[in-house]
Design a protein that fits this description.
This protein has a domain of 50 residues: Arc Repressor Mutant, subunit A. The protein has four helices and no strands.
Length: 72
């Protein structure tokens, strides 16, 4: 879907699945129509859960060693 900035929502994934499983469209046709790459379409055909961003929390803040000075 043109105009979407790289974020996949479940309705987009459902649309990919519907086109492939119900309408029997090929991966190439789906990728061309939706403006996606074939590997992306293939990946989202196998997606079970909604994709989520996983961020690792840093071990300590970047300004951790200066925290005492900042508080003072």
């Amino acid at each position: 879907m043109p105009g979407v900035s790289g974020v996949f929502y479940m309705d987009m994934i459902y649309e990919i699945r519907r086109r492939h499983l119900v309408q029997k469209q090929t991966l190439s046709a789906i990728a061309r129509d939706m403006g996606l790459s074939r590997p992306t379409v293939c990946k989202h055909l196998n997606t079970i859960e909604e994709p989520k961003y996983k961020r690792d929390q840093p071990l300590s803040p970047k300004l951790g060693k200066f925290e005492a000075q900042l508080v003072a």
